[in-house]
Specification:
Layout: H1 7-14, H2 20-37, H3 50-57, H4 67-76, H5 82-85, H6 111-130, H7 136-152, H8 158-177, H9 182-205, H10 209-226, H11 229-245, H12 249-259, H13 269-283, H14 287-303, H15 319-333, H16 336-354, H17 363-379, H18 383-399, H19 403-417, H20 425-439
Protein backbone atom coordinates (compact mmCIF):
# COMPACT_ATOMS: atom_id res chain seq x y z
CA UNK A 1 0.00 0.00 0.00
CA UNK A 2 1.38 3.42 -0.97
CA UNK A 3 2.36 5.64 1.98
CA UNK A 4 0.13 8.72 2.22
CA UNK A 5 1.58 12.12 1.43
CA UNK A 6 1.36 15.24 3.55
CA UNK A 7 -0.69 18.12 2.23
CA UNK A 8 2.59 20.08 2.23
CA UNK A 9 4.12 17.60 -0.22
CA UNK A 10 1.04 17.57 -2.42
CA UNK A 11 0.99 21.37 -2.65
CA UNK A 12 4.68 21.79 -3.41
CA UNK A 13 4.40 19.14 -6.12
CA UNK A 14 1.49 21.05 -7.65
CA UNK A 15 3.56 24.25 -7.67
CA UNK A 16 6.79 22.71 -8.95
CA UNK A 17 8.59 23.26 -5.64
CA UNK A 18 9.24 19.66 -4.63
CA UNK A 19 13.04 19.98 -4.84
CA UNK A 20 14.77 21.58 -1.85
CA UNK A 21 16.87 23.81 -4.13
CA UNK A 22 13.64 25.25 -5.59
CA UNK A 23 11.68 25.57 -2.35
CA UNK A 24 14.38 27.03 -0.11
CA UNK A 25 14.81 30.35 -2.01
CA UNK A 26 11.03 30.84 -1.84
CA UNK A 27 11.18 30.19 1.88
CA UNK A 28 13.87 32.88 2.24
CA UNK A 29 11.81 35.33 0.15
CA UNK A 30 8.80 34.72 2.39
CA UNK A 31 10.95 35.25 5.49
CA UNK A 32 12.05 38.66 4.21
CA UNK A 33 8.43 39.52 3.44
CA UNK A 34 7.43 38.71 7.02
CA UNK A 35 10.32 40.80 8.34
CA UNK A 36 9.38 43.80 6.21
CA UNK A 37 5.65 43.66 6.89
CA UNK A 38 5.17 42.57 10.50
CA UNK A 39 8.67 41.97 11.84
CA UNK A 40 10.83 41.42 13.67
CA UNK A 41 13.70 42.26 11.32
CA UNK A 42 15.68 39.23 12.53
CA UNK A 43 13.25 36.86 10.83
CA UNK A 44 14.67 37.98 7.46
CA UNK A 45 17.68 35.74 8.05
CA UNK A 46 15.63 32.59 8.67
CA UNK A 47 16.81 29.57 6.68
CA UNK A 48 15.44 26.06 6.13
CA UNK A 49 17.82 23.14 6.40
CA UNK A 50 17.58 20.31 3.88
CA UNK A 51 16.97 17.71 6.60
CA UNK A 52 14.07 19.70 8.01
CA UNK A 53 12.57 20.06 4.53
CA UNK A 54 12.73 16.27 4.11
CA UNK A 55 10.95 15.76 7.46
CA UNK A 56 8.18 18.13 6.40
CA UNK A 57 7.58 16.03 3.31
CA UNK A 58 6.99 12.83 5.31
CA UNK A 59 3.91 11.83 7.24
CA UNK A 60 4.37 11.53 11.00
CA UNK A 61 6.04 14.83 11.85
CA UNK A 62 6.58 14.58 15.61
CA UNK A 63 6.61 18.29 16.44
CA UNK A 64 5.06 21.18 14.57
CA UNK A 65 7.38 23.89 13.20
CA UNK A 66 8.27 26.73 15.51
CA UNK A 67 6.26 29.93 15.50
CA UNK A 68 8.77 31.71 13.23
CA UNK A 69 8.58 28.95 10.62
CA UNK A 70 4.77 28.82 10.83
CA UNK A 71 4.58 32.53 10.05
CA UNK A 72 6.77 32.05 7.00
CA UNK A 73 4.72 29.06 5.87
CA UNK A 74 1.61 31.19 6.29
CA UNK A 75 2.92 33.43 3.52
CA UNK A 76 3.66 30.49 1.24
CA UNK A 77 0.37 28.69 1.98
CA UNK A 78 -2.19 31.33 2.99
CA UNK A 79 -5.07 30.12 5.11
CA UNK A 80 -3.69 26.63 5.80
CA UNK A 81 -2.72 25.99 9.44
CA UNK A 82 0.47 24.03 10.10
CA UNK A 83 -1.48 21.14 11.65
CA UNK A 84 -3.38 20.67 8.39
CA UNK A 85 -0.33 21.31 6.21
CA UNK A 86 1.71 18.49 7.76
CA UNK A 87 -1.12 16.00 8.19
CA UNK A 88 -1.75 13.34 5.55
CA UNK A 89 -3.44 14.69 2.46
CA UNK A 90 -6.38 12.46 3.41
CA UNK A 91 -7.09 12.68 7.17
CA UNK A 92 -9.95 11.51 9.45
CA UNK A 93 -12.63 14.11 10.00
CA UNK A 94 -12.94 15.86 13.30
CA UNK A 95 -16.30 15.42 14.96
CA UNK A 96 -17.39 18.97 14.23
CA UNK A 97 -15.86 19.21 10.76
CA UNK A 98 -18.47 18.96 8.01
CA UNK A 99 -17.20 17.55 4.75
CA UNK A 100 -17.92 15.01 2.10
CA UNK A 101 -16.64 11.61 3.28
CA UNK A 102 -15.50 8.61 1.37
CA UNK A 103 -16.71 5.12 2.14
CA UNK A 104 -13.60 4.75 4.35
CA UNK A 105 -14.65 7.73 6.48
CA UNK A 106 -11.83 9.94 5.23
CA UNK A 107 -11.77 13.35 3.57
CA UNK A 108 -10.23 12.90 0.16
CA UNK A 109 -8.50 15.61 -1.80
CA UNK A 110 -11.42 16.16 -4.09
CA UNK A 111 -12.89 19.07 -5.97
CA UNK A 112 -13.10 21.36 -2.93
CA UNK A 113 -9.43 20.90 -2.04
CA UNK A 114 -8.34 21.39 -5.64
CA UNK A 115 -10.34 24.61 -5.82
CA UNK A 116 -8.86 25.79 -2.54
CA UNK A 117 -5.37 24.91 -3.71
CA UNK A 118 -5.93 26.93 -6.87
CA UNK A 119 -7.19 29.84 -4.79
CA UNK A 120 -4.13 29.60 -2.58
CA UNK A 121 -1.88 29.65 -5.63
CA UNK A 122 -3.58 32.83 -6.86
CA UNK A 123 -3.29 34.37 -3.42
CA UNK A 124 0.40 33.51 -3.32
CA UNK A 125 0.94 35.12 -6.72
CA UNK A 126 -0.89 38.26 -5.61
CA UNK A 127 1.17 38.38 -2.43
CA UNK A 128 4.39 38.09 -4.40
CA UNK A 129 3.24 40.71 -6.89
CA UNK A 130 2.52 43.13 -4.07
CA UNK A 131 5.41 42.17 -1.84
CA UNK A 132 8.96 43.43 -1.86
CA UNK A 133 12.19 41.92 -0.62
CA UNK A 134 13.17 45.46 0.32
CA UNK A 135 11.37 47.72 2.74
CA UNK A 136 12.09 51.04 4.43
CA UNK A 137 13.98 49.32 7.24
CA UNK A 138 16.26 47.47 4.81
CA UNK A 139 17.08 50.65 2.91
CA UNK A 140 17.63 52.63 6.09
CA UNK A 141 20.09 50.05 7.39
CA UNK A 142 21.94 49.85 4.07
CA UNK A 143 22.25 53.64 3.91
CA UNK A 144 23.50 53.76 7.51
CA UNK A 145 26.16 51.14 6.76
CA UNK A 146 27.31 53.07 3.70
CA UNK A 147 27.50 56.32 5.66
CA UNK A 148 29.66 54.62 8.29
CA UNK A 149 32.01 53.16 5.69
CA UNK A 150 32.56 56.32 3.65
CA UNK A 151 33.11 58.40 6.79
CA UNK A 152 35.63 56.04 8.37
CA UNK A 153 37.43 54.92 5.20
CA UNK A 154 40.01 57.76 5.17
CA UNK A 155 41.54 56.75 8.52
CA UNK A 156 41.13 52.96 8.55
CA UNK A 157 43.59 50.37 7.17
CA UNK A 158 42.45 49.55 3.65
CA UNK A 159 42.99 45.78 3.64
CA UNK A 160 40.65 44.82 6.53
CA UNK A 161 38.04 47.32 5.32
CA UNK A 162 37.98 45.79 1.84
CA UNK A 163 36.27 42.56 2.96
CA UNK A 164 33.64 44.45 4.95
CA UNK A 165 32.74 46.59 1.95
CA UNK A 166 32.71 43.56 -0.32
CA UNK A 167 30.21 41.76 1.91
CA UNK A 168 27.93 44.79 2.06
CA UNK A 169 28.12 45.18 -1.72
CA UNK A 170 27.05 41.53 -2.05
CA UNK A 171 24.04 42.27 0.16
CA UNK A 172 23.02 45.03 -2.26
CA UNK A 173 23.52 42.68 -5.21
CA UNK A 174 21.36 39.96 -3.62
CA UNK A 175 18.60 42.45 -2.91
CA UNK A 176 18.68 43.61 -6.53
CA UNK A 177 18.22 40.01 -7.64
CA UNK A 178 14.93 39.94 -5.76
CA UNK A 179 11.78 41.94 -6.33
CA UNK A 180 11.14 45.49 -5.22
CA UNK A 181 9.17 48.57 -6.30
CA UNK A 182 10.94 50.93 -8.74
CA UNK A 183 11.76 53.52 -6.08
CA UNK A 184 13.69 50.92 -4.12
CA UNK A 185 15.44 49.62 -7.24
CA UNK A 186 16.97 53.03 -7.89
CA UNK A 187 18.07 53.27 -4.28
CA UNK A 188 19.64 49.81 -4.43
CA UNK A 189 21.48 50.58 -7.67
CA UNK A 190 22.80 53.76 -6.08
CA UNK A 191 23.93 51.84 -2.98
CA UNK A 192 25.58 49.15 -5.10
CA UNK A 193 27.28 51.86 -7.17
CA UNK A 194 28.67 53.60 -4.10
CA UNK A 195 29.96 50.32 -2.69
CA UNK A 196 31.57 49.33 -6.00
CA UNK A 197 33.10 52.80 -6.02
CA UNK A 198 34.53 52.27 -2.54
CA UNK A 199 35.93 48.90 -3.65
CA UNK A 200 37.44 50.60 -6.70
CA UNK A 201 39.08 53.19 -4.46
CA UNK A 202 40.32 50.47 -2.10
CA UNK A 203 41.71 48.41 -4.99
CA UNK A 204 43.50 51.54 -6.19
CA UNK A 205 44.90 52.21 -2.71
CA UNK A 206 46.18 48.62 -2.66
CA UNK A 207 47.94 49.14 -5.97
CA UNK A 208 45.60 46.90 -7.98
CA UNK A 209 44.80 49.31 -10.78
CA UNK A 210 43.23 46.80 -13.18
CA UNK A 211 40.85 45.57 -10.49
CA UNK A 212 40.11 49.19 -9.55
CA UNK A 213 39.12 50.00 -13.13
CA UNK A 214 36.84 46.95 -13.29
CA UNK A 215 35.12 47.96 -10.06
CA UNK A 216 34.78 51.53 -11.33
CA UNK A 217 33.09 50.38 -14.53
CA UNK A 218 30.58 48.36 -12.49
CA UNK A 219 30.01 51.38 -10.24
CA UNK A 220 29.39 53.64 -13.23
CA UNK A 221 26.86 51.17 -14.67
CA UNK A 222 25.00 51.22 -11.34
CA UNK A 223 25.06 55.02 -11.47
CA UNK A 224 23.52 54.85 -14.94
CA UNK A 225 20.78 52.47 -13.76
CA UNK A 226 20.11 54.71 -10.77
CA UNK A 227 20.11 57.79 -13.07
CA UNK A 228 22.27 59.53 -10.44
CA UNK A 229 24.45 62.32 -11.83
CA UNK A 230 26.37 62.82 -8.60
CA UNK A 231 27.51 59.21 -8.57
CA UNK A 232 28.30 59.17 -12.29
CA UNK A 233 30.37 62.32 -11.95
CA UNK A 234 32.24 60.99 -8.90
CA UNK A 235 33.05 57.66 -10.56
CA UNK A 236 34.38 59.39 -13.69
CA UNK A 237 36.62 61.36 -11.34
CA UNK A 238 37.84 58.17 -9.72
CA UNK A 239 38.61 56.69 -13.13
CA UNK A 240 40.54 59.86 -13.95
CA UNK A 241 42.56 59.55 -10.72
CA UNK A 242 43.44 55.94 -11.52
CA UNK A 243 44.62 56.97 -15.00
CA UNK A 244 46.65 59.86 -13.53
CA UNK A 245 48.49 57.62 -11.07
CA UNK A 246 48.94 54.97 -13.74
CA UNK A 247 50.98 57.44 -15.80
CA UNK A 248 48.22 58.18 -18.33
CA UNK A 249 47.57 61.91 -17.89
CA UNK A 250 45.84 62.31 -21.27
CA UNK A 251 43.30 59.65 -20.27
CA UNK A 252 42.87 61.41 -16.94
CA UNK A 253 42.01 64.68 -18.72
CA UNK A 254 39.55 62.89 -21.01
CA UNK A 255 37.80 61.12 -18.14
CA UNK A 256 37.59 64.28 -16.05
CA UNK A 257 35.97 66.09 -18.97
CA UNK A 258 33.57 63.17 -19.50
CA UNK A 259 32.49 63.42 -15.88
CA UNK A 260 31.70 67.10 -16.26
CA UNK A 261 28.80 66.20 -18.57
CA UNK A 262 26.84 64.93 -15.57
CA UNK A 263 25.60 67.84 -13.49
CA UNK A 264 24.98 66.79 -9.87
CA UNK A 265 22.19 68.21 -7.78
CA UNK A 266 24.71 69.57 -5.29
CA UNK A 267 28.17 69.05 -3.84
CA UNK A 268 31.80 69.10 -4.83
CA UNK A 269 32.04 66.42 -7.55
CA UNK A 270 32.74 68.97 -10.30
CA UNK A 271 35.33 70.81 -8.20
CA UNK A 272 37.09 67.48 -7.85
CA UNK A 273 36.95 66.88 -11.62
CA UNK A 274 38.46 70.30 -12.38
CA UNK A 275 41.22 69.71 -9.81
CA UNK A 276 42.05 66.28 -11.22
CA UNK A 277 42.13 67.75 -14.70
CA UNK A 278 44.53 70.49 -13.51
CA UNK A 279 46.98 67.93 -12.07
CA UNK A 280 46.92 65.86 -15.26
CA UNK A 281 47.42 68.93 -17.44
CA UNK A 282 50.30 69.95 -15.19
CA UNK A 283 51.89 66.54 -15.72
CA UNK A 284 51.50 67.08 -19.47
CA UNK A 285 53.26 70.45 -19.12
CA UNK A 286 50.25 72.41 -20.38
CA UNK A 287 50.65 75.29 -17.95
CA UNK A 288 47.97 77.65 -19.26
CA UNK A 289 45.28 74.96 -19.39
CA UNK A 290 46.30 73.62 -15.98
CA UNK A 291 46.00 77.04 -14.36
CA UNK A 292 42.65 77.61 -16.10
CA UNK A 293 41.37 74.37 -14.57
CA UNK A 294 42.60 75.45 -11.13
CA UNK A 295 40.83 78.80 -11.47
CA UNK A 296 37.65 76.96 -12.50
CA UNK A 297 37.89 74.78 -9.41
CA UNK A 298 38.33 77.87 -7.20
CA UNK A 299 35.33 79.56 -8.81
CA UNK A 300 33.15 76.50 -8.29
CA UNK A 301 34.30 76.27 -4.68
CA UNK A 302 32.79 79.70 -4.00
CA UNK A 303 29.41 78.46 -5.24
CA UNK A 304 29.59 74.98 -3.68
CA UNK A 305 26.88 73.52 -1.48
CA UNK A 306 26.97 70.50 0.78
CA UNK A 307 27.15 67.07 -0.84
CA UNK A 308 23.47 66.30 -0.29
CA UNK A 309 23.25 63.78 -3.13
CA UNK A 310 26.35 61.80 -2.10
CA UNK A 311 27.03 60.24 1.32
CA UNK A 312 30.02 62.50 2.08
CA UNK A 313 33.12 61.20 3.82
CA UNK A 314 35.61 59.87 1.31
CA UNK A 315 33.26 60.94 -1.50
CA UNK A 316 33.42 64.60 -0.50
CA UNK A 317 36.10 66.96 -1.80
CA UNK A 318 36.87 69.38 1.04
CA UNK A 319 38.99 72.52 0.73
CA UNK A 320 42.13 70.88 2.08
CA UNK A 321 41.96 68.20 -0.59
CA UNK A 322 41.59 70.84 -3.29
CA UNK A 323 44.61 72.65 -1.88
CA UNK A 324 46.95 69.71 -2.22
CA UNK A 325 45.64 68.92 -5.73
CA UNK A 326 46.59 72.50 -6.56
CA UNK A 327 50.01 72.06 -4.95
CA UNK A 328 50.60 68.95 -7.10
CA UNK A 329 49.71 70.95 -10.20
CA UNK A 330 52.24 73.66 -9.34
CA UNK A 331 54.89 71.05 -8.61
CA UNK A 332 54.49 69.64 -12.10
CA UNK A 333 54.81 73.09 -13.65
CA UNK A 334 58.08 73.80 -11.78
CA UNK A 335 60.04 77.03 -11.47
CA UNK A 336 60.52 79.22 -8.42
CA UNK A 337 57.08 80.83 -8.54
CA UNK A 338 55.22 77.56 -8.90
CA UNK A 339 57.32 75.96 -6.14
CA UNK A 340 56.37 78.81 -3.84
CA UNK A 341 52.69 78.33 -4.74
CA UNK A 342 53.01 74.58 -4.20
CA UNK A 343 54.55 75.07 -0.76
CA UNK A 344 51.91 77.58 0.27
CA UNK A 345 48.97 75.41 -0.84
CA UNK A 346 50.43 72.22 0.62
CA UNK A 347 51.23 73.87 3.94
CA UNK A 348 47.67 75.11 4.33
CA UNK A 349 46.32 71.67 3.34
CA UNK A 350 48.49 69.97 5.98
CA UNK A 351 47.29 72.44 8.61
CA UNK A 352 43.64 71.74 7.82
CA UNK A 353 44.13 67.97 7.64
CA UNK A 354 46.07 67.78 10.90
CA UNK A 355 43.61 69.86 12.94
CA UNK A 356 40.58 67.71 12.07
CA UNK A 357 39.06 65.61 14.90
CA UNK A 358 40.75 62.19 15.20
CA UNK A 359 37.74 60.32 13.87
CA UNK A 360 37.68 62.52 10.76
CA UNK A 361 41.40 62.54 9.96
CA UNK A 362 42.13 61.73 6.32
CA UNK A 363 45.44 60.00 6.93
CA UNK A 364 46.28 59.00 3.38
CA UNK A 365 45.38 62.37 1.91
CA UNK A 366 47.24 64.19 4.67
CA UNK A 367 50.31 62.08 3.87
CA UNK A 368 50.06 63.02 0.18
CA UNK A 369 49.79 66.70 1.10
CA UNK A 370 52.88 66.35 3.31
CA UNK A 371 54.74 64.77 0.41
CA UNK A 372 53.80 67.77 -1.77
CA UNK A 373 55.13 70.04 0.97
CA UNK A 374 58.32 67.96 1.22
CA UNK A 375 58.86 68.10 -2.55
CA UNK A 376 58.24 71.86 -2.67
CA UNK A 377 60.73 72.47 0.14
CA UNK A 378 63.25 70.13 -1.46
CA UNK A 379 62.93 72.08 -4.70
CA UNK A 380 63.59 75.29 -2.80
CA UNK A 381 66.65 73.87 -1.05
CA UNK A 382 65.06 73.43 2.40
CA UNK A 383 66.35 69.93 3.10
CA UNK A 384 65.56 69.94 6.83
CA UNK A 385 61.95 71.04 6.26
CA UNK A 386 61.53 68.42 3.52
CA UNK A 387 62.93 65.68 5.77
CA UNK A 388 60.57 66.61 8.61
CA UNK A 389 57.53 66.05 6.39
CA UNK A 390 58.86 62.85 4.80
CA UNK A 391 59.59 61.26 8.20
CA UNK A 392 56.03 62.06 9.29
CA UNK A 393 54.71 60.32 6.16
CA UNK A 394 56.82 57.23 6.83
CA UNK A 395 55.12 56.88 10.20
CA UNK A 396 51.63 57.32 8.77
CA UNK A 397 52.17 54.96 5.85
CA UNK A 398 53.29 52.23 8.21
CA UNK A 399 49.96 52.42 10.03
CA UNK A 400 47.78 52.96 6.95
CA UNK A 401 49.58 51.93 3.80
CA UNK A 402 48.38 53.09 0.39
CA UNK A 403 50.12 52.59 -2.92
CA UNK A 404 49.91 56.29 -3.84
CA UNK A 405 51.87 57.35 -0.77
CA UNK A 406 54.51 54.69 -1.43
CA UNK A 407 54.88 55.92 -4.99
CA UNK A 408 55.27 59.49 -3.78
CA UNK A 409 57.95 58.39 -1.33
CA UNK A 410 59.77 56.61 -4.15
CA UNK A 411 59.56 59.69 -6.35
CA UNK A 412 60.83 61.86 -3.50
CA UNK A 413 63.72 59.45 -2.92
CA UNK A 414 64.79 59.70 -6.55
CA UNK A 415 64.60 63.47 -6.48
CA UNK A 416 66.57 63.56 -3.25
CA UNK A 417 69.32 61.37 -4.74
CA UNK A 418 69.87 64.02 -7.45
CA UNK A 419 69.77 66.98 -5.06
CA UNK A 420 72.93 68.97 -4.27
CA UNK A 421 72.43 68.08 -0.60
CA UNK A 422 72.16 64.34 -1.34
CA UNK A 423 75.36 63.56 0.57
CA UNK A 424 74.37 65.48 3.69
CA UNK A 425 73.73 63.45 6.88
CA UNK A 426 70.04 64.50 6.84
CA UNK A 427 69.57 63.28 3.24
CA UNK A 428 71.49 60.03 3.78
CA UNK A 429 69.53 59.19 6.93
CA UNK A 430 66.24 59.98 5.22
CA UNK A 431 67.04 57.87 2.15
CA UNK A 432 67.97 54.92 4.37
CA UNK A 433 64.69 55.29 6.26
CA UNK A 434 62.71 55.34 3.00
CA UNK A 435 64.54 52.27 1.69
CA UNK A 436 63.88 50.33 4.89
CA UNK A 437 60.24 51.40 4.84
CA UNK A 438 59.68 50.36 1.22
CA UNK A 439 61.31 46.96 1.76
CA UNK A 440 58.70 46.11 4.39
CA UNK A 441 55.73 47.04 2.19
CA UNK A 442 54.15 45.29 -0.83
CA UNK A 443 55.95 46.05 -4.09
CA UNK A 444 54.20 48.61 -6.26
CA UNK A 445 52.36 46.88 -9.09
CA UNK A 446 51.55 49.60 -11.63
CA UNK A 447 54.03 51.54 -13.76
CA UNK A 448 54.32 55.31 -13.88
CA UNK A 449 54.92 57.90 -11.23
CA UNK A 450 53.38 61.13 -10.04
CA UNK A 451 54.69 63.95 -7.88
Amino acid sequence: MQEPETLFLVLIKQRGWKDYEVFEPRYRDAARQVADTTGPASIATARLEKRQFARWCRVGLKTMPRREARRILGVLFPGIPAERLFAPAAVPLAADEPAECSSRGQVEIGAEDVVMAAANESARFAALAEASNVGPHTMEQLEADIQRIVRTYPNRPVGPLFQEVRELRNVAFRLLEGKQPPQYSRGLYFAAGVLCGVLANASFDLGRYEAAETQARAAFLCGELAAHNGLRSWIRGLQAIIAYWDGRPSDAVRLAEAGSVFVPESGTAHIRLASIKARALGQLGQAADALTALHAADAMREQATEDADLPGGMMAFPLEKGLFYASSTHLWLGGEQHLAEAESRAQEAVRLFSTAPPERRRLGEEALARMDLALARLGRGEIDGAAEQAHSVLSTNTRRHTESVSKRLGYFDRRLSLHPAATSPVAIGLREAITAHQQHLPQALPPGEAP
